[in-house]
């Protein structure tokens, strides 16, 4: 009987259930999580530093495949994606494409930020056009904490009544 319990996790692994894509171990229920999809180490470290100051637990995937694997197991409060993350010339950003295909009941739980070299910071129309909540120009990453605090507060104010209605 003891041997059956001991072999159970191995059997699950043999059946193809792979939990290696989990971005975090145990988290307290009120923990806020973020995923930073950025390959430029200078920009990534600046964003990660500010997110840690804001109290986020952070996952940093190395590729879009890792990011998709993380999102299979966890709904992040905040997702920061560079427009060129793990893409070649003229390729589509697979992380953004995945997020665009999510159902709204799941998508609204994540605040998505696009790091871009071409759009203006906090341009709401361009962010909407790209299916993200906020666009931040790479030149403005130095002030990412203040930008995020303001944009996320506006987002929370906007959806507050909606979220309360869903809890009823």
Structure summary:
The chain is an alpha/beta fold and 168 residues long. The protein is built from seven helices and five strands; from the N terminus they run αβαβαβααβαβα.
Structure description:
The protein has about 170 residues and is α/β, with parallel strands linked by helices. The chain is built from 7 helices and 5 strands. The chain has one domain (about 30-165): Response regulator (Rossmann fold, 3-Layer(aba) Sandwich). The chain has helices at about 1-15, 40-55, 65-75, 95-100, 105, 125-130, 145-165, and strands at about 30-35, 55-60, 80, 110-115, 135. It is globular.
Blueprint (SSEs and pairs):
Blueprint: H1 2-14, E1 32-37, H2 41-53, E2 56-59, H3 64-73, E3 78-82, H4 94-100, H5 104-107, E4 111-116, H6 124-129, E5 134-137, H7 144-167
Parallel strand pairs: 1-2, 1-3, 3-4, 4-5
Gyration radius, to the nearest Å?
18 Å
How much of the sequence lies in strands comes to: 5-15%
Helical stretch count? 7
Rounded to the nearest angstrom, the distance between the terminal CA atoms is 45 Å
The CATH topology comes to Rossmann fold
CATH classification class = Alpha Beta
Q: What's the main sheet like?
A: 5 strands, parallel
Average residue pLDDT? 84
Q: Report the structural category.
A: alpha/beta
Enumerate the spans where pLDDT stays under 50 for 5 or more consecutive residues: 1-13
H/E order of the elements?
A: HEHEHEHHEHEH
Q: What strand order characterises the main sheet?
A: 2-1-3-4-5
The CATH superfamily appears as: Response regulator
The helix content is 40-55%
Q: Return the CATH architecture.
A: 3-Layer(aba) Sandwich
Shape: globular
How many β strands by DSSP? 5
Number of domains: 1
């Amino acid at each position: 009987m003891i041997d059956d319990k001991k072999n159970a996790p191995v059997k699950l692994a043999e059946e193809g259930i792979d939990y290696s894509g989990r971005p975090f171990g145990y988290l307290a229920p009120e923990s806020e999580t973020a995923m930073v999809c950025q390959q430029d180490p200078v920009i990534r470290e600046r964003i990660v530093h500010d997110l840690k100051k804001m109290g986020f637990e952070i996952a940093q995937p190395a590729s879009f495949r890792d990011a998709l694997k993380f999102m299979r197991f966890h709904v992040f409060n905040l997702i920061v994606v560079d427009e060129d993350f793990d893409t070649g010339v003229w390729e589509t950003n697979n992380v953004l494409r995945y997020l665009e295909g999510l159902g709204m009941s799941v998508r609204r739980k994540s605040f998505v930020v696009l790091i871009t070299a071409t759009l203006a910071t906090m341009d709401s129309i361009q962010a909407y056009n790209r299916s993200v909540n906020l666009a931040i120009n790479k030149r403005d990453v130095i002030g990412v904490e203040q930008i995020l605090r303001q944009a996320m507060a506006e987002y929370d104010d906007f959806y507050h009544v909606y979220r309360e209605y869903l809890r009823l």
